[in-house]
TrEMBL record:
It comes from Streptomyces silvensis. This is Fe2OG dioxygenase domain-containing protein. It comes from the Bacteria. Pfam families: HalD (PF23169).
Length: 231
C-alpha cells in the first residue's frame, strides 16, 4: 500500500533519513485514496473529536492545544487508516528507508491517532514519542508563516524525570520542515525532540500519526502517560 511516487522516491528518502532522521514522502497515497480518507476524517472530527488544552509533565510541562481522534474512533470510522498501519508492504517500504526492521507498536492506543489544530495559538508542544518512528500523513496544512510547521532537534535522549527541553532547544540546532498536504513524513521521533509550531491565525493543520517500533523498543517496558492524557 504505497503510491508509485512513494516507491520511486525511496532512494532519495533513504538519503534524507540518513542525514536528518527525517524524510518527506510526496504523494503518499493516490489522489482518490487521499480524498476519500480526508472525507472520513472530516466527518469524524465533526462528530467525535475531543478538545485538549493541557500541559504534559513528562515533556517538561509543554502545552497541547488541539482536537484529537483516538485510535478506536478511527478504526471504526475509517477503512484506509487501519489498513495503512497493518500493511506489510508499507512496513517493508519504511524498512528500505531506515535500514532496519520496522514493527507495529504493541500498545493499541498509540498505533494511530489524529490531531487537528485550527484555533489561533493551537500547538503540539515539544515532546518525544514512546516508540522509534512516527509516520505522519498530512491532510491539511496552513500556509508557511502561519505556524503548523514541524520543528525538531535530532539525536537527543528523553529522560522523563529530567527532560531538559529548554536546554536542548536552546542548544539546537532546531530543524524546521513544512510538509505539504497530501504528503507524509517519517521522523525518528523517539530520539528527536519535536513539536508542531503554534498557529499564528485561525488556520488548519490536520494529520494522522502512525507509530512504529524498532526491535529494541520491544525489549523494554514503555510508559504511556502522555498518550493516555491526550487520547
Amino acid at each position: 500500500m504505497a503510491s508509485e511516487e512513494f516507491r520511486a522516491a525511496i532512494p532519495a528518502l533513504r538519503q534524507s533519513y540518513q542525514q536528518s532522521d527525517f524524510a518527506e514522502i510526496p504523494a503518499f497515497m493516490p489522489d482518490d485514496v487521499f480524498h476519500s480518507t480526508l472525507r472520513e476524517l472530516e466527518e469524524l472530527f465533526h462528530h467525535q473529536s475531543h478538545r485538549r488544552e493541557v500541559h504534559i509533565e513528562q515533556s517538561g510541562g509543554t502545552p497541547r492545544r488541539f482536537n484529537t481522534l483516538a485510535r478506536d474512533v478511527i478504526a471504526q470510522g475509517s477503512s484506509v487508516i487501519p489498513a495503512v498501519f497493518a500493511s506489510p508492504a508499507m512496513r517493508a517500504a519504511l524498512e528500505e528507508i531506515v535500514g532496519e526492521k520496522v514493527l507495529p507498536v504493541p500498545y493499541e492506543p498509540e498505533q494511530y491517532i489524529a490531531t487537528r489544530l485550527h484555533e489561533t495559538s493551537d500547538v503540539h508542544g515539544w515532546h518525544w514519542d514512546d516508540y522509534t518512528w512516527a509516520l505522519v500523513w498530512i491532510f491539511k496544512m496552513p500556509d508557511e508563516g502561519h505556524g503548523g510547521s514541524l520543528e525538531y532537534v535530532k539525536g537527543v535522549p528523553w529522560e522523563p524525570e529530567n527532560p531538559r527541553v529548554e536546554e536542548y532547544v536552546a542548544t539546537g540546532p532546531v530543524i524546521r520542515r513544512h510538509p505539504a498536504a497530501g504528503s507524509a513524513y517519517l521522523l525518528k521521533a523517539g530520539s528527536a525532540l519535536h513539536r508542531v509550531s503554534p498557529l499564528s491565525c485561525a488556520a488548519e493543520r490536520m494529520m494522522v500519526c502512525f507509530s512504529f517500533a524498532s526491535t529494541t523498543d520491544l525489549e523494554d517496558e514503555r510508559s504511556h502517560e502522555s498518550i493516555q492524557a491526550l487520547f
